[in-house]
Design a protein that fits this description.
Elements: H1 4-11, E1 17-20, E2 26-29, H2 31-37, H3 46-50, H4 53-63, E3 68-77, E4 80-90, E5 99-105, H5 107-142, H6 149-181, E6 189-192, H7 193-211, E7 215-219, E8 228-231, H8 233-251, E9 257-265, E10 273-280, H9 303-308, H10 315-325, E11 329-335, E12 339-347
Parallel strand pairs: 7-9
Antiparallel strand pairs: 1-2, 1-5, 3-4, 4-5, 6-8, 9-10, 10-12, 11-12
Length: 349
């Protein structure tokens, strides 16, 4: 028979909880447990309801006399596998042996560990490649190329390139760490977006002239004289430097890169008026299958080409976190053979 007071206590707990009597029957389940495991479990044997040997063994231990035990429970759903830590505790009931099960969702901890492991593996791989190349060149310079000035000059040039690549990687890793740590801290400085973009284009114009790219700033009538926003200048400069550099690199030489400012009404979670900057190139475009993953760390559409151009695979991840900090949104559209547009939408002041 269910205990009304115990049921009231279970219902007050937000995590899934089960009450199992001495006969191994599930006598009570709070709403969270019913939502996760199903209404059908009440009145059933715990062995039939839970069905995972390691968890069943720990429940048996507590029913047999142990005060408490811990176990893991995994539940497969359409969205993926949810992992729980289960605390099994004996209830002080006269002449019987009832127990409570408390389920704590630890899926996020597992996912965080997987992200950390993948991150370390990616960083190790990114550093190993240039380091291996440099060690090989050093060995060659000490041996076969010891008296070959032409080979020495060639190898030293390559070593310098690889050293710069590692330096960029470390710099981007530090930037990513910093912007992630500040992501929940809202910026507070009043800025003019046109000033930020003009400073961005001024710093990139010498490079664009070397490759024959024409940098164009367009201001839509909707944004004329209304380009104020709250933000951090250096971080927004970093966003538009990154996007414009990418447009120059991947758009190809002798092609225009356009930055267009407009003002519009926000949609979805981004409510109110927004300032939108579209960074558009006339390059080869990006296949649609790659678009959802472009802001992942170390994700590249063309790994070899990206590395040749000095890319670290972290630039768009940094952009995403900075835009998130500014409570904005990043949208990527592309058409093969036509070009790509990276749109940054930021709340207008």
């Amino acid at each position: 028979m269910a205990d009304p007071m115990l049921d009231a206590i279970l219902n007050a707990v937000p995590d899934p909880m089960l009450h199992i009597n001495a006969d191994g029957v599930i006598m009570g389940a709070n709403p969270a447990a019913r939502a996760s495991l199903g209404d059908w479990i009440v009145g059933r044997s715990y062995a039939a309801a839970l069905r995972q040997p390691a968890l069943l063994a720990r429940i048996d231990d507590v029913l047999s006399g142990a005060d408490s035990a811990d176990a893991r429970y995994e539940r497969s759903e359409q969205a993926g596998v949810t992992e729980y830590k289960v605390r099994i505790t004996a209830l002080p009931v006269e002449r019987t042996r009832a127990i409570l099960l408390h389920f704590t969702d630890i899926t996020h901890l597992r996912e965080a560990e997987e992200i950390r492991r993948d991150f370390v593996a990616n960083v190790s791989h990114e550093l190993r490649t240039p380091l291996t190349a440099m060690m090989g060149f050093i060995e060659t310079l000490r041996g076969p190329a010891r008296n070959d000035p032409a080979a020495q000059a060639r190898f030293l040039t390559i070593m310098e390139t690889e050293g710069h690549r590692m330096n960029r990687l470390v710099s981007d890793l530090l930037s990513l760490s910093r912007v992630e740590s500040e992501e929940r801290m809202r910026p507070s400085d009043a800025l003019n977006l046109e000033d930020v973009l003009r400073a961005t284009l001024a710093s990139l114009r010498p490079r664009a002239e070397d490759t024959g790219n024409d940098l164009v700033l367009e201001i839509d009538a909707s944004a004329e004289g209304r380009m104020g926003l709250i933000g951090e200048r250096d971080q927004l400069m970093q966003v538009f430097l990154n996007l414009t550099e990418n447009a120059i690199k991947y758009g190809g030489p002798q092609k225009p890169v356009t930055l267009r400012i407009s003002r519009a009404e926000g949609r979805g979670l981004l409510r109110g008026e927004v300032l939108q900057v579209d960074v558009t190139d006339k390059g080869e475009g990006i296949d649609s299958q790659h678009l959802p993953r472009l802001t992942e760390r170390f994700y590249r559409v063309d790994t070899h080409r990206s590395r040749e151009m000095g890319g670290t695979g972290l630039g768009l991840a940094i952009v995403k976190h900075i835009v998130n900090r500014h409570r904005g949104r990043l949208k990527i559209t592309s058409e093969k053979g036509v070009g790509s547009t990276f749109s940054v939408m930021l709340p207008a002041a």
